Amino acid sequence: MQVPLLDLKGQYAPLRAEIEAVIREVCDSQRFVLGPHVAELEREIAAYSQTRFGLGISSGTDALLVALMAFDIGPGDEVLTTPFTFFATAGVVARLGARPLFCDIDPATFNLSPASVASTILRECETVGDRLVNRKTRGVVKALMPVHKEMEGRVGKATIDAVYKATGFVAPK
């Protein structure tokens, strides 16, 4: 038996007519970039997320890149993440001149392990002033990219304060 790597047919079938109608609208209007459908999507994302703005991005890779750019990630910074994901996760970190600091996964879920994040920080990092610093590289740990929603409640948003809080450190004021 051959199992396909990715089979979306079952998900697509009930949505096919709606999707094809919108694709036809976009093709007929020739508004492929920043058209009314993008504005509508951004409004819906903002409403769903209960935020003031939603932002349509061209790809998942670019979404990761924009998120790290918003946190001013760059050379000398480090980002906690897992190597057990699509290569773009570490790739966008490197693209910004930062360094991924890899943590292990939970073998039961294959998701980033909160325990591994904590142990990686305790083993490899130290607090210097108000920063979490990698002892070997001296890079400043500025973000956590969990690559799945489950971590948000247990670890927090991609800020250094969340990393401190998740591992029991007290973030300096």
Which SSEs are present, and which pair or pack?
Blueprint: H1 9-12, H2 16-29, H3 36-49, H4 60-70, E1 77-81, H5 88-95, E2 99-102, H6 114-124, E3 125-128, E4 131-134, E5 140-144, H7 150-154, H8 160-166
Parallel strand pairs: 1-2, 1-5
Antiparallel strand pairs: 3-4
Helix pairs in contact: 4-5
Quick structural gist:
With 173 residues, this protein is an alpha/beta fold.
Give an account of the 3D structure:
- With 173 residues, the protein is of the alpha/beta class.
- The chain has helices at residues 9-12, 16-29, 36-49, 60-70, 88-95, 114-124, 150-154, 160-166, and strands spanning 77-81, 99-102, 125-128, 131-134, 140-144.
- The protein is extended, with a radius of gyration of 20 Å.
**Distance between the first and last residues' Cα:** 58 Å
Computed Rg:
20 Å
DSSP strand tally: 5
Largest sheet: 3 strands, parallel
The helix tally amounts to 8
Element-by-element helix/strand order: HHHHEHEHEEEHH
- As a percent range, the share of strand residues is 5-15%
| Helical coverage, percent range | 40-55%
Low-confidence stretches: 149-173
What's the average pLDDT?
83
Features:
13% strand; 8 helices; 173 residues; 5 strands; alpha/beta; disordered C terminus; three-stranded parallel sheet
